[in-house]
Amino acid sequence: MAFPFKLPEKFSLRTRLFVVMIVMLLVSGILILGTTAIQYESQRENYHLGRLNRKEAQIKRHINYLVNKNNLFNKFDSVWNKKRADFERINMIHSIRYSLFKLDGTPLLIFHSPLEIIANDYKLDQTLLNRIYESKSGIYMEEYNSDIDRFHASYSLLKDDQDRAYGILFFPYFEDISFSENELNSFLQNLYQIYALLLVAVIFIAYFLSRFVTRSLETIRLRMTKTDLQKKNEKIYLKNATREIDSLVNSYNTMIDDLSESAAKLAKTEREQAWQEMARQVAHEIKNPLTPMRLTIQSFQRKYDPNDPDSKIKLNDFSNLLIQQIDTMSEVAEAFSDFARMTKPNMKECDLVDVTKMAASIFQEEHIIFSSDQAHIYQKLDRSQWIRVITNLIQNALQSVSPKKKPQIAIQISADTDQNIITIMDNGNGISPELKDKIFEPKFTTKSSGMGLGLGIVKNIIEYHGGIISFISAPNKGTTFTIVLPKSI
Asked: Fewer CB within 10 Å: C terminus or N terminus of the chain?
C-alpha cells in the first residue's frame, strides 16, 4: 500500500517504524469508517426497497381482490367511481396514499400524485409509460427529489388471473430516514471514540515496539562508532536477537577479529619498516666515516716509512684523523640514541629569558640579536633540553644562510596572558613549499651533511613541555620558527 507522503531520508529507522504504524492505523481507520458508512447506507437502501416491495405486493393483492369481487375488469370509469369508497379504504388500512391509472396513462382513481403528473392533468406522459412497459418485471422505480416531493415511487402493471394487464398502480413510499441517520451517526460516533482510544494505545505501543525493534541496531551503531584500529575493540553479544540482527552481529564480530588481526599485522609491519629505515640510516651514517678511514689507512700503509724524519708527525696526523672519524661515529650513535630514547623532562621553575640568552651566547656571534618584552619570564622547563632546542634552532639558522650572505639571527620572547611565545628568525635560504610537510620528520634534512634528526628531536622536546612549534618560510628570504609554551602544564 502506497502512503500519501514520503518520509525524509534522514529519519531514523525507529522514527520510520513509529510513523508507519501510526499512519497504517489512521488509514485503516478511515477505510473502515468509510466502508462502514457505505455498507450501512446500502443496507438501509435495501431495507426500504424491500419494505416498498412488500407493501406494494399487499396493495396489489387488496386491489385485485376488490376488482375480482366487483367484476371491474374493462369497466367504465363511472363503475370504478361507484366503488371509490372501497378503494379509498385501502389507504386507511395500509396507511398509504396510492393512485390508479388506465393502461393509456389517464387517471382512474387519484388519491396522491407527484406534482409533475398533476401538472400534466393527472395523466402519465408517454415517456413514463414506455419505461413501465419496457420493464421486464412490469415495475418501474422512480425517485422524486424536488423541494416539495421527496420520496420513492413505483409504477407497476396490474394484471388479472389470466395475466392480462388492466391498469397501472402508482405507489409512493415515504421512508423515514431520521431514525436510520441517527442510528448511523451514533454508531460512527462510538466508532470514532473507539479509534481515538485505539490511536492513543497504538502510539504508546508503537513507541515501545519501535524502541525494542531498533535497540539491537542502536547497540551495533554505538559499538561501530567506537571502533578504532589503534585500540582493542569489544565484540557484541545480544540475547534473543532476531535472525537478521544475529547475522549482522556475527558479521560485526568477524570484522572485529579481522580488524584485530590486520592491526597486529600492520603494527608489526610498521615496526619492521621503522627498524629497517633506522638500520639503513645508521648504516649509512656509520659508513660515511668508515670509507675515508679505510682509504687513509691504506694510504698510510703504502707511504709510511719508519726512517722518515717526519714519521712521528705523520703518525700523529694519522692518529688525529682516526680519532676525528671515530668521534663522528660516536656522535652518530649518540644522536640516534637521543632520538630513540627521549628521557622524561625534569621540570623546574626557570627564568626563560636568562636560559634562552645563555644558550644563544654559546655561539658568540655578533649577528645574533636577542630581545624580550620583559626582563624576567618564569616558566617550568627542563633546562638542559631547552638549551638543546635553542642551540639546535640557531645552528640550523646559521647553516641555512649562504656563505655569500651575512647571517642575521633574531631571537624574541614575549609573554601573553596564559602562554609564552619564542620566535627565532633568520635570513637564510628558506624552505621550499614542497618540503614544509617533511621538515620535522626524522632523518629528513636539506643540508649536504648531518643526519636530519635535529628538528625531530626539537619537536619532541617541545611537545614534552606541552607546547607547539610551527614555522613560516619564504624561499631566499628566511624562516621564522615560533614556539608557544603554556604557562601552566
From this structure: N
